[in-house]
């Protein structure tokens, strides 16, 4: 008989401990600690300028060289804080989706060529097999006519289509962790709902864990199970999203909840209104 001590306890995909980031004399992030478990979606919520993007960059290994960093960032158990993205081994690589899909994609290269690359480079597929895989992934993103789409350049797509191509690109990398930094902020409400749904379905299906960076509690509640809330680079509250929504402790969290409840569906288009949740729905969707 196996004893309890031999049962394996899941280990975090991402474990951040005492993260500090300083640029010159400005302390941007201070003593931040949180975990993301396998398959879990955690949001890092905070106002503009609270240090969310710098935290995301630290996890991705994309901090500017002059940033001073302290603490620990473990990805799949391996210390990665001092490793820029280009020097990371396959198991500590993190895929990413950014707010600005236009600048995230190469404007001169077709969607097909960009989407084929991770399949060829990381998964050893032939060009033909990579093209098939790219088209299948685009189709699964509810993007019409993948055959034509792969021949287009990023500027020939709408913002929502482009963001779904970016999600496809991140999924093609098949990493254990994805960081999505405000991926819906630049989109209208209907397109936001489509992009959030694509993120949810694809991470559910692949088991990819996600760190979702946002200032939008409504978007977070549609996607994430847990939240880490930061203010001026310091964590002020964290926990299950439904608990934070029903019983916010900190004044900033209370403001976030109040702001999310104040979204008036009547000011939106009928389709958008259908996508906007009432306070009760906000909870149900968390
Ligand atoms: N290149 C830089 N050098 C020094 N400080 C910077 C630099 N870029 C941003 N900052 C400062 O770092 C702080 C955190 O910025 P960060 O971009 O991480 O915030 P954020 O929470 O992601 O905000 P937003 O939601 O607006 O993107 C801000 O106070 C900002 O003024």
Portion in beta strands: 15-25%
Radius of gyration (Å): 19 Å
Helix/strand/pairing category: alpha/beta
Residue-averaged pLDDT, rounded?
86
In the predicted model, the low-confidence regions spanning at least 5 consecutive residues are 264-286
Pfam families: ABC_tran
Family: Belongs to the ABC transporter superfamily.
Protein name: ABC transporter domain-containing protein
InterPro entries: AAA+_ATPase (IPR003593), ABC_Ni/Peptide_Import (IPR050388), ABC_transporter-like_ATP-bd (IPR003439), ABC_transporter-like_CS (IPR017871), P-loop_NTPase (IPR027417)
Write the layout of secondary structure elements.
Elements: E1 14-23, E2 26-36, E3 41-46, H1 52-60, E4 68-75, E5 78-79, E6 95-97, H2 101-104, H3 111-121, H4 127-140, H5 146-149, H6 159-172, E7 177-181, H7 189-206, E8 209-214, H8 217-223, E9 226-231, E10 234-240, H9 241-246, H10 251-261, H11 270-275, H12 279-285
Parallel strand pairs: 3-8, 3-9, 6-7, 7-8
Antiparallel strand pairs: 1-2, 1-4, 4-5, 9-10
Helix pairs in contact: 3-4, 3-6, 6-7
The protein binds adenosine-5'-triphosphate.
Adenosine-5'-triphosphate binds next to strand 2 and helix 1.
Outline the structure in words.
This protein has 286 residues and is of the alpha/beta class. The protein is 39% helix and 22% strand. The strands form two sheets. It has a six-stranded mixed beta sheet, with helices on both faces. The longest helix is centred in the last third of the chain and has 18 residues, at 189-206. Bound molecules: adenosine-5'-triphosphate. Adenosine-5'-triphosphate binds at residues 23, 26, 28, 46, 48-54, 215.
């Amino acid at each position: 008989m196996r004893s309890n001590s031999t049962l394996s306890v899941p280990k975090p995909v991402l474990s951040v401990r005492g993260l500090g980031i300083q640029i010159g004399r400005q302390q941007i992030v201070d003593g931040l600690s949180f975990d993301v478990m396998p398959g879990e979606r955690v949001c890092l919520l905070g106002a503009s300028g609270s240090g969310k993007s710098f935290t995301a960059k630290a996890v991705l290994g994309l901090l500017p060289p002059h940033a001073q960093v302290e603490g620990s960032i473990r990805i799949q158990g391996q210390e990665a804080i001092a490793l820029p993205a280009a020097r990371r081994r396959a198991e500590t690589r993190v895929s990413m989706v950014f707010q600005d899909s236009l600048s995230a994609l190469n404007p001169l290269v077709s969607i097909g060529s960009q989407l084929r690359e991770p399949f060829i480079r990381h998964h050893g597929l032939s060009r033909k097999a990579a093209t098939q895989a790219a088209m299948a992934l685009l189709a699964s993103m509810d993007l019409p006519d993948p055959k034509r789409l792969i021949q287009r350049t990023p500027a020939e797509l709408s913002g929502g289509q482009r963001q779904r191509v970016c999600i496809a690109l991140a999924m093609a990398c098949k990493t254990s962790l994805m960081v999505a930094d405000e991926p819906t902020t630049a989109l209208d409400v209907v397109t936001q709902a489509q992009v959030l749904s694509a993120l949810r379905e694809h991470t559910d299906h692949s088991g990819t864990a996600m760190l979702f960076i946002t200032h939008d509690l409504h978007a977070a509640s549609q996607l994430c199970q847990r939240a880490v809330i930061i203010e001026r680079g310091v964590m002020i509250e964290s926990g299950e999203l439904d608990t934070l929504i029903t019983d916010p402790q900190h004044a900033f969290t209370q403001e976030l909840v109040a702001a999310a409840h104040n979204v008036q569906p009547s000011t939106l288009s009928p389709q958008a209104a259908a996508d906007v949740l009432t306070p009760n729905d906000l909870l149900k969707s968390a």
